[in-house]
Amino acid sequence: MDESSGAAIAVVVVAVLLGLGLYVFSSIALGKVFLKLGEQAWKAWVPIVNTITLLELGRYSALWVIGMFIPAANLVALVVFIMAVNNVNRRLGHGGGFTLLYLISFPIWAGVLGFGKSVDTGWMPGIAATGYVPFAPVTLLSLAPAQPAVPTPVGHNAAPSMPLASMPPAPPAPAAQFAGPPLPPAPPAAFLATAPPAPPAPPAPPAP
Q1: Residue burial 135-168, b: 16+ Cβ < 10 Å; e: rest
Q2: CA-to-CA distance for 26 and 22, rounded, in angstroms?
């Protein structure tokens, strides 16, 4: 092994160690940024997860990360990601200068925000400006359409509700009809059988 090959190996080792050190420093600093905005710090260590988290913290849909891998849509997705980073800066009380700092040097940007005194100011971008729609679970109650209220005509008062005590009783139910042949009609009174009258008593004989 000559001196040229040894120098090349040393350069590669130094570059790998430097890149690994920058990755560790940036992940720790970005994790502190996530903690300030209410996210978990471990998401800063995963390459694609940290991008999704920055999009969501900037109130943009996480689906934009898919556009970064599409040739025609990656430029639009990159612009959306930069706008999300700008919203993150504004939430921490900084302006567009920190967005430019992110584009120039990401480790410095993460270090200043993570280890600095930046706190969450509570600023939130509007939904119409960002197009961010939070996820909401769909339930059966949310699918049922609401019944529209019937408006009361002008000049007419709604009928007062009648209390249960003053309501008229329900009509009685009709008697049940028994199945079978109809009964014969009753005979008239003139044809009813009557007993014959008793004979008159004989006169008593005269006394002697």
Answers
A1: eeeeeeeeeeeeeeeeeeeeeeeeeeeeeeeeee
A2: 6
**Chain segment 88-101, per-residue pLDDT in tens:** 999 999 999 999 99
Alpha carbon of residue 120 to chain centroid = 27
Q: Give counts: helices (H), strands (E), the chain.
A: 8, 0
- Contact between 123 and 90 under an 8 Å Cβ cutoff? The reply is yes
Give phi and psi for 205, each to the nearest 5.
-65, 150
Would you say 118 and 36 are in contact if contact means Cβ atoms under 8 Å apart? yes
What is the phi/psi pair of residue 120, to 5°?
-70, 120
Q: Are 8 and 90 in contact (CB under 8 A)?
A: no
Q: Which residue has the tokens 């430029």?
A: 75
In 3D, which of 24, 141, 131 has the Cα closest to residue 83?
131
DSSP type of residue 141? H
Asked if residues 124 and 93 have their Cβ atoms less than 8 Å apart, the reply is: no
pLDDT per residue over 143-154, tens digit each? 455 555 555 555
Distance CA 107, CA 30 (A): 9
Full-model pTM: 0.59
- Indicate left, alpha or beta for 33 from its phi (over 0: left) and psi (-120 to 50: alpha): alpha
Can you tell me the distance from the alpha carbon of 36 to that of 21, in angstroms, rounded to the nearest whole number?
Answer: 23
